[in-house]
Amino acid sequence: MLTTKVLEGTLVNAPNLEVRGQKTRFRNFRNHASEVKQIDPTKLMEDMRKSVVNMLNWKRDAVQRIAEECEKISSHYNYEKEIEYYSYYNMKYIYDDRYGEPPTNSYNWKPLQLSPHPNFEDSLVNLDHSAVHVPINVYEKASDILNDIKWSEDLTEIFKENFANDPSLSWQFFGSARGFIRIYPSTKWKVSHDTHGHSKAPTPDLYDCRVRQWYIQAAASPKDVVILLDTSGSMTGLRRHIALNVVFSILDTLNENDFVIVLMFSNEIKYVSECLTKMVQATKRNIIEIKERLEESIKTADIANFTLSFINSFDILSSLTSERKGAQCNQAIMLITDGAPDTYEAMFKQYNPESLVRVFTYVIGREVTQITEVYWMACNNRGYYAQVANLAEVREQVQNYIPVMSRPLVLSNSRIYEWTPVYTAISEIQLTEWIWGERVKAIKTWLMQHNRGYVLDNMEPVDNINEEKREADNEEESYVENRGDEDVPLNTIDMKMFNIELEMYKRIPDYKKKIPLMITVSAPVFDQRTHINVTRKFLYKNVYKDSEPEPTRIANLLGVAGVDVPIKEIEKMAPKYKIGVNGYSFMVTNNGKILYHQDFRPIFQDMLKPFYSQVDINEVEMSNNTENPRHVDSILEQIRLDMINGTRGSKRMTVKSTFDSMKRPISRVQHYFYGKVDNTPFGFALVLPEPYGSFRFEAQIDLKNNIRADNYTKYFSGTHWRIHPDWVYCDSPNMISDIVSPTPEEALVQFFNNEMPKNQFIWRTNGINPPRFDNFTCDKELLQSLIFDAIKTHNFEHCSESHKFKRRDDKSIDIVNAFISTRSGLTRFTNPHYSYEFKNRTEYNNLALSIDEVYYRRAVDYFYVDNQAFVYSVPFDNGGNTIVTASQAIFVGNGKMNTPVAVVGIQYNYTSFYSTFFRRARESQLNCDSPEIDCYVLDNNGFIVIAEDLKHSGIFFGEIDDDLLQDLVRTSIYRKMKHFDYQAICIDTIHKSSFSMPLFTPFDNLRRIFGWFISKLTATYLGMFYDSWMANANEMMESSDTTENGDVDYSSESQYPTEPRFNRSRPKQCDKEVELYELNHLANKTLHYIHVCSEQCSRNYYVQRIAHSNLLLLVLDTTACKCSVNTNKFESKPIVYNKDELCQLYQFDSERKRPSSCFNYHPNESEVKLCGGCGQLKPIFLLHIVSLGLLIMKCVGRFF
């Protein structure tokens, strides 16, 4: 048995994990130490800020040209009253005739050649044409629609001119007030399509540009809205359901510059919940909370007290004005009722004498009698009256308030430019309860098939990955893992549900895990007409007749013009190579929400998180002294306040951040420099780490003066190198066409071979005008630094061989790869398996992003802990079948002026690494194979690098022995750091009290049969008259046979009647906290401690830092006694807030800056008398509307 003294003695000579060659230095860099200079961070921030301003100004100018051209074209267009047909490219009916024939059951498909283009996320586009999308609730053959589509066709030329002037432009469009949108360039319409769920049918196309944020922001100024919902006894049944949908549709038109409160009234006023008793900002979090609480709390009874509800509403709005809170612009009351007994004229004269508060009224139901009074309320208070007879009319009628609120803007003829928060395309999948449920069903189906013996192999292919994409990318087959149990007992199958999230993640290809984000700049387009002729219907001898045309004053929007700005284009204005490793930039809105940030995580698996567009800067930046959730440091709060107010400044703050999916903490001092992005509501910030962030290695090759001095192509020979795939070294003249080089490396080699010898390139400049790419345009600093680095690292492979980086021998670890990555984005490596082809980029994804890679960032930070150390890491939970990566930063400079220029690294075969450790331990008289001791090699964050059990590799040590880990904290070997995640997703389980089948009454069964019959009937009818527009809806209705609580109905013979019914789960955004660990600085000696397991048991353990590494050797004496071991799974845990804390989240009034423009009044608005009327349904569309209503009810049922 080993004694304590023996252990102490042997640990002095602990196994040295270094192998020959690790201490190799690339002195070629250090010979240029004089090239290290101190930069002016304020000037660097200013240069980047101005670049962002200039680029966004180009996009705004493009929008201005589109808007002006719209007004010009429309004012000269001769309206064709009898138009019945016009041929145009409908985005839903475009096909590429080079790859097949159009569908045989449609007559209006048009051929168009489409090619991928990088400006549009490689979407298939045609740069010669624009195309149109018409919403499902708009009749595309109506004369008004065809006329507007016809005149807007001429916008294609201005779209093309804009693209020629600014080749970096993305999507350009005009959204018409009639509902259609014209987009350039032309492309096929994309709908959200979840290929990983139980139902693989595409989501129905319910897109309408008039309810998109870019449209509403440009069409109307910010507003404070009081929604009055009549909950009297008459608002029951279908009326209650329609009224709820009207409220939901109003809420969907609001954005974070608006404020809202919902009041339910009958004989008294009721709030939606205890947390929503005052006007709140219309954030996505608040909107979802209002919807959920409203659906739960609404009860109809008693008689409506309109006087009480209106007085209460006016008091709320008045208090906002006096306290200067809320939007401080438009104010409106939205009344949803089935009629009112009086106009309450006296009350309106008292509380709204000048009609400063608009009143919009929505009368619910067809058979209503008290219409005149409600009509008067709207027309005499600058509002609009609408009657909503059924669900199909909800969206169209709700939207009528937007053009009314836009009248002051139209009458002023002021062109405003609005910028949206960050968002993404409508075709991307949103994380909703329904989408989640469909994916859970797919996993459950697999589990049940597995349970019944259908899965016989150890690995089963997943068949619901997009086959076309997989074949195109030539990706490997994806699999769902069978965890070894060939037959899961029925009574234990629920236990596997804890892995559902992991199983879902496995099914998602890598290309699905990144979603392009954007912002949009938009501007209103005004109808230049001041009067139109209106024909009214009047009743004469019980017959409706048309009156003579009457000139009527109007103030209408034609629509909204817009341009998308991809976030990646903004990030290019602040290049990472200029910022340096562990530095970053970010931007915030006037509400303090981020547009982009290095810790912004909008994606959950491949789905957008519910509140992804409204992440506050306080939720991604965290002070080092933050110990409680939602605590905001005073310095960070000042930075936020300065940025939203457009104040230029700088601040230092000690922060804590994380690497590797929030598993590795880092604490450092950061210096923030920030300023306003002119002509936008945005603020820009540059963040540099200290102490190295303010120094730069400026060594370059003067290319223009030495262009023929050397053959630079030879430094880029072979395929054992890569450049950063996201950095733009040179822009090609072909970028505005579909001629795109397949890889960045091939493009660079082509440039060296063709353009550079002829000196046919220019340097990129930051001017006020968009760059013109008539020639190759290169980034001078980046390209010349790249060539310098290539020359200095050209002998890397020879250097590796000369220092005996052996593949394998009896005395060294099996080294599978050596690499070096430099500040210019160049990465060289020696592993031949990583160099098959440039286009095969998957093999080196963990290396080629240079300063953006985790290994690079960790090595640079660890330099200040031990400048001789290599940072070792293994993938998490790898089970021993992996590689070990060791990296070390190369710093250059003199004295305090040191800066990182590269990181050198080695990758080992893990099995060889593991075996070498145990062999070297035995040579040092430390027998880690002995049952008397347990040996662990831990990294600086408490993760196991080596343990006797190979399966423990990459596992957090607390999952093996949490008691011992806490003892390591107590003895100051490790320190514990608490980190908060405000962008987390929690999966709540909805437990059932019983697995028995739900009981249905005869009326329930009749209702289900009737719904099925009507859906089939209407789909058949519409298939005859309206082609295939309802095909997706019909497939969706057929594809899911569910019970009312959303579970799969296994009662039919075709299913599995003997299978268990699962608990439902529901995703929601939440806050989480996690405890992270960091190794303290230790002297290079053996430390002895006693771990007290219990009153009867204590054990000795010894720790020693492994020299020149981030590793710790832990040896535990197991001979004394057997301790019970407590484990703690490494995971973030949801934060449970009490009721007051939850209310604070909804009611919190964070500092914000109101939009600079406000148009809420114009003296000529009183001349506009149009204020709505009763909705009339045309008989020919009756089944159309009924079917759409059923579709919407289906969607509402799934999402809410």
Automatic annotation (TrEMBL):
Residues 1040-1057 have a biased composition (Polar residues). It comes from the Eukaryota. It holds the Pfam family VGCC_alpha2. Its main location: membrane. GO terms for molecular function: metal ion binding; voltage-gated calcium channel activity. Transmembrane segments: none annotated. Signal peptide: none annotated. Residues 1040-1064 are annotated as: Disordered. Residues 224-402 form the VWFA domain. It is found in: Membrane. InterPro entries: Ca_channel_alpha-2/delta, VDCC_a2/dsu, VWA_N, VWF_A, vWFA_dom_sf. GO terms for cellular component: voltage-gated calcium channel complex. SUPFAM superfamilies: vWA-like. It is a single-pass type I membrane protein. This is VWFA domain-containing protein. It comes from Blomia tropicalis. The lineage of its organism: Eukaryota, Metazoa, Ecdysozoa, Arthropoda, Chelicerata.
